[in-house]
Amino acid sequence: MMNFETVEVTTDLLIIGAGMAGSGACVEAGYWAKNNNVKVTVVDKAAMERSGAVAMGLSAINQYQGDNTPVDYLSYVRQDLMGLCRDDLVMDISRHVNGSVHMFEGFGLPIWKDEGGNYVHEGRWQLMINGESYKAIVAEAGKNSIGMDNLIERVFVLQLLHDKNDKKKVAGAIGFSVREPKIYVFKFKACLVVAGGAVHIFRPRSTGEGLGRAWYPPWNAGSSSYMTTMAGAEMSSQEVVFIPARFKDGYGPVGAWFLLFKATATAANGFNYMGEGLAEGGELHNWPPYGKVKPIPTCLRNHLMMIESYRKGNFPILIHTDKAIAKIAAESPDEKTKKRRLKELEAEAWEDFLDMTISQAILWAAKDVFPEESASEIMPSEPYFIGSHSGASGAWVSGPEDLQTAESKSEYFWGYNRMTTIKGLFSAGDGVGNSSHKFSSGSFTEGRIAAKAAVKYVVENPAMGEIDPAEVERLKAKIVQPLKNYEEHKGYTTLGTVTKKYDLPVEEVNPNYITPKMAIFRLNKIMDEYVAGWGSQYNCSATTLNIALDLLKMLKEDLPKLAARNLHELMRCWENVHRTLLAEAHARHKLYREETRWPGYYYRVDFPKMDEQKWGKVFANSVYDAEKDEFTMLTRPIIHLVDIKEVVGM
Ligand code: SFD
Ligand code: AMP
């Protein structure tokens, strides 16, 4: 067993996670910190240059307002989430996001421009970029702002520590290095949890040789949610997962194809399920008023696809890349231009994936797919927890004061923008619920907003809190327990990591411990089969959810037996602990909201319709008591700050 050294870090503001929101937070906090003599430190489990969801790069900036107003954006977001959003949070990001995008350009990010020098739009809100190095560019700006001495990489933060004298306030955090035997104990006045969303809570569609492949990054393991939930912060909309429609197997995103190339999708038999769904008497008319809005809400687009493929059996669903390319090329004035245009379109099609989902490009190449010659299969993926895209899960936070009405102020504002219900604990990006469609640029913007407010909090609350040394010692022992479990019991293993016969890695079978891979399989199976994963065709009911809760209880009982062979596996163990708490919160939220509000994300088969009267004007929230291991469910009102009547176009 390794000997662990303890490293103590004392700072004013700790930023946990250096992804898109974390980078925005660094840029902003660096500025305000210098003016206020505040020390800012950022910690990430990976290397900031390529950490988080944007590691591989992106091919679009999905939130840019241009000349649109925050109310325009709000109407789009509210409709897309079937009426569920916090107007104040959405409009707050919207009014600042142009500034962030212009910053990106200043940092050196190439944004596509047309001949007139204007940004090239993918859709109304999206801009095309040459974004392979997007994260590296943004991270560099963040590092420059706070200074390299204040960046701690390769340290996994396990959980937050309360102030010894105030359980409604945070004063520290504990984690460990994933490279050296070191435990990190942080002390701070405030912290910003921006550790992303969650992947691999549900069974992915990828198996065997593609195991682990997902659309959202597998290293987003529910840490934001775990840290805020464990600290006792109120959480919101944990039932709202995002199921993206993606190119089959490689999980290539569809946005550029639908919006830029204007491709259409049909069922295998050629049926135009989207057009028919919208037509008079079509399925979308069963979901008023959202079935009639434009663009069709993301979940309803999925819903139509699911009916066609799973229920009617007309799969696969095809996206007609070939027809889309041919149509654009045909608009050329002459044959020579058409040929050139075809080559350009081909290059753009490949770059879309090479910039952000390289595996999809590899899969196309491996399968001899030429997008200009044939259609590709798309399908709904497994559920993800991503407050920044078309999901809505995350922390319940205070909004900005100036956007509140007299009615909303008492519900949505408690002193500091983006502070959770725990003092000194802020969040942003995937960590914050009910302000969907922020994407990379909006997450960066929300990180800036939260960091500015957190520095203000530090200035106005200058006393350093006190953490409980006994609690620290208890957690130090807990962190390394999986390494001990392995060392103590490894001799009893029936199989090593490699079978002699086939020379294939297999999992160890040992009655005394559970490997991280086994644990994740067990979690995935429970969630897939009982909590509306793809394996149960996104269906669940009170019966299945209660079965899942029983099984999760038993899984939780076994998690102290997790075993790690090395520091990397130690991280894998704790990531699974993070995932499991979010899995439970999610099942409880689904059980609580007795309606089907997001068909295409999940179906409560025992409540198959939207219940506007009971659930149309409320958020489902929860508070976790870590000592009692108990969730309390509650509702909070949806208060509209603006009346929106028109249906907006794309
Ligand atoms: O089209 C710990 N996203 C897209 N956004 C766009 O604007 N345009 C696109 O084209 C997008 N597409 C897309 C996107 C994502 C992915 C994976 C693909 C395609 C393939 C979404 C954005 O990427 C997303 O909205 C933001 O990145 C969210 O930002 P943030 O900061 O909330 O999460 P993060 O960037 O993943 O960062 C999290 C950080 O936390 C670290 N971390 N550190 C310490 N301790 C722990 N316990 C930790 N746990 C996590 C991570 O290392 C990371 O640095 S399209 O398909 O939608
Ligand atoms: P995606 O690639 O699916 O993540 O989508 C990128 C952006 O395009 C997001 O803003 C989506 O909401 C939007 N989008 C994707 N497909 C469609 C569609 N068929 N209609 C309208 N908007 C879409």
Report what the structure shows.
- This protein is of the alpha/beta class and 650 residues long.
- It has a five-stranded parallel beta sheet with strand order 6-3-2-10-17, sandwiched between helices. Strands 1-9-8-7 form a four-stranded mixed beta sheet, sandwiched between helices. It has a four-stranded antiparallel beta sheet with strand order 16-11-20-21, covered by helices on one side.
- Among the domains are: 245-380, Flavocytochrome C3, Chain A, domain 1, CATH 3.90.700.10; 480-616, Methane Monooxygenase Hydroxylase, Chain G, domain 1 (Up-down Bundle), CATH 1.20.58.
- Helix content is 38%, strand content 15%.
- The chain has 18 helices and 21 strands.
- The mean pLDDT is 95.
- Bound molecules: ligand SFD and adenosine monophosphate.
- Ligand SFD binds next to helix 1, strand 4, strand 7 and helix 13.
Question: Any key phrases for this structure?
Answer:
38% helix, 21 strands, 18 helices, Flavocytochrome C3, Chain A, domain 1, 650 residues, binds adenosine monophosphate, alpha/beta, 15% strand, binds ligand SFD, five-stranded parallel β-sheet
Q: Strand order across the biggest sheet? A: 6-3-2-10-17
Roughly how many Å is the radius of gyration? 24 Å
Number of strand segments: 21
Tell me what portion of residues adopts beta-strand conformation.
5-15%
Annotated CATH topology of the domain at 480-616:
Methane Monooxygenase Hydroxylase, Chain G, domain 1
Which of globular, elongated, flat, extended, rod-shaped describes the shape? globular
CATH top level of the domain at 480-616 is: Mainly Alpha
Overall mean pLDDT: 95
**Ligands (ions, cofactors included):** ligand SFD, adenosine monophosphate
Helix/strand-derived category reads alpha/beta
Largest sheet: 5 strands, parallel
Stretches where pLDDT is under 50 for at least 5 consecutive residues are: none
Q: Percentage of helical residues? A: 25-40%
